Amino acid sequence: MHIAIAGNIGAGKTTLTYLLSKYFGFEALYEDNEQNPYLMDFYSDMPRWSFNLQVYFLNSRLRKIVGIRRENKNVIQDRTIYEDAQIFAPNLHAMGLMDDRDYSTYKNLFEAIADLVQPPDLMVYLRCNLATLVEQINKRGRNYEDSIRLDYLRRLNDRYEEWYENYNYGKKLEIVVSELNFRDNPEHLGIIINKVKAELYGLFS
User: The pTM is what?
Assistant: First the structure.
């Protein structure tokens, strides 16, 4: 079983990945932020490092997908390869932060491997407004995120909304972060767990 958690920067993906993996007993697969050699450079100079960053993420997530299928484990994944290719890279290109040549190379690379990618059994999307994203980003205090531009976050949010509406690779579930405080409220977490069970198994328990 493969559950994926999608959402903008600061939406709470890592927290929900941890909580659901603990409840279901699934292995948690997190983003490689601490090991990513391009992330700090990217936030300080986006046009220079956007292509490098996106290729790194593409490679990292492809390796995880291959590992999931090879080992046949039950996993919960923090962010997906679809978000990189269909939200982040197009957004960088549209904002002029990735040039045409790099974007074309990136798109061709993704399209070459797209047929190798098996979608998750359930895609959970965390819908989050801009104010909450900023608040949660500030709370976690990652130095390299201090320079994130508001227009960058806003554009990503708009793209996430469109992407989720058009997502048709399999089952999907939307969680509105402002309505369900799964981080601090066990009852709210329970509501999400039941929603996930209903999508996966067709029942509440």
Answer: 0.88
